[in-house]
Amino acid sequence: MMSTVLSARHLNKYFYDPDKFQVLKDITFDVQSGEFLAIVGKSGCGKSTLLYLLSTMDTDYDGQVEMAGTTLTGRNQDFLARFRNEHLGFVFQFHFLLPEFSVLQNVMLPGLKLGKYPEKVVEERAMEKLRLIGMADYARKPASKLSGGQQQRVAIARALINDPTIIMGDEPTGNLDRANSENVFAIFRDLAAKGQTIIAVTHDPDFAAGTDRVIEMSDGMIINGHETKDRQAN
Ligand SMILES: Nc1ncnc2c1ncn2[C@@H]1O[C@H](COP(=O)(O)OP(=O)(O)OP(=O)(O)O)[C@@H](O)[C@H]1O
C-alpha cells in the first residue's frame, strides 16, 4: 500500500545576488514511501537548492514541508537535527567525512549520536553497511587516506547506518566509476524495494531512467513528474 512520506507544498525561495531573484517557484509534490525518485534539470535550475531545503538544513523558505507524518516547517534547529538523525540519510557531493577518524568511526558516528543501540551493535551495523558498499576492507583506515570515490561510498554507508526513512542524494554516483555507480544504483533499488525512500538529484540519464519517477525542473519550477505514476510491483 502506498503512503505519503514527503509532502512539499508551495515552496518558494529567494536569493539575493545581490538583486532578489526567485530560485524556487511554487514547488508542490508528494513522495510515496518506497519510491525511488530522481530530480533532473539543467544546471542552475534549482535542484540542489530544493534538495537542501528538503534536507531541513535550509529553513529560509515559504511553503510547507512534511515528512514521515511530521511538519518540519517552522521547527527549531534542535528538533530538525533530531529529525534528520532519525529519519534522513544524506549522500551529498561534499561528503564531509572526518579525515582523522577511521572509515568505521565515520560510519558509526550518526548511529552513536542516535543513541538507540549500544556501541557494539552500532559497530556491527556499520560493518554490515560497509560490506554492502564494498568498503569493509578499509574499515580501519583513516578517511583521509581514501580516494574521492571511496570516500563517497563510505558516505553512503554512513547515510544508511540508522536505516533512514528517506535517503537524499545530490549526485550520489557523481564521483564513481561505472561499476561502482551501478552497484550504488542497485543498492538504492533494493532499499526502495524494502520500503526506504530515495530522492536523488542526478545528471546521469541512465540513473534517472532506472528510477520510479523523474521530476524535471526548469527555472525553479517542476515542469514534469509532479504526480506519482502507478508503479508495477518489482
Ligand atoms: N547561496 C546562494 N546565493 C545566491 N544564489 C545562489 C546561491 N546558491 C545557488 N544560487 C543560484 O541559484 C540557482 C540554483 O542553484 P542550484 O545549485 O540549486 O542549481 P542546480 O540545478 O542544482 O545546478 P547544478 O546542476 O549545476 O548543480 C543558480 O542560479 C545559482 O547560481
Describe this structure in words.
This protein is 34% helix and 27% strand. It has seven helices and ten strands. It has helices at residues 47-54, 77-87, 103-114, 119-132, 148-160, 178-193, 205-209; strands at residues 4-16, 20-32, 36-40, 62-67, 70-71, 88-91, 166-170, 197-201, 213-218, 221-224. The strands form two sheets. A six-stranded mixed β-sheet has the order 6-7-8-3-9-10. A four-stranded antiparallel β-sheet has the order 2-1-4-5, with helices on one face. A hairpin with a 2-residue loop joins β9 (213-218) and β10. It is globular and about 45 Å long. The two termini are 14 Å apart. The mean pLDDT is 92. It binds adenosine-5'-triphosphate. Adenosine-5'-triphosphate (ATP) binds next to α1. This is Lipoprotein-releasing system ATP-binding protein.
CATH class term: Alpha Beta
Oligomer: single chain
Molecular shape: globular
Q: Give the CA-CA distance, first to last residue.
A: 14 Å
Per the CATH scheme, the topology name is Rossmann fold
What is the CA-based Rg, rounded? 17 Å
Any idea how many domains? Answer: 1
Total count of helical runs of at least 4 residues: 7
N-to-C order of helices and strands: EEEHEEHEHHHEHEHEE
Ligand types: adenosine-5'-triphosphate
Low-confidence stretches: none
Q: What is the helix content?
A: 25-40%
Mean pLDDT: 92
Structural class: alpha/beta
How many beta-strand elements?
A: 10
Strand content is: 25-35%
Label the CATH architecture: 3-Layer(aba) Sandwich
Pfam families: ABC_tran
Protein name: Lipoprotein-releasing system ATP-binding protein
Keywords: ATP-binding, Lipoprotein, Nucleotide-binding, Transport
InterPro entries: AAA+_ATPase, ABC_transporter-like_ATP-bd, ABC_transporter-like_CS, ABC_transpr_LolD-like, MacB-like_ATP-bd, P-loop_NTPase
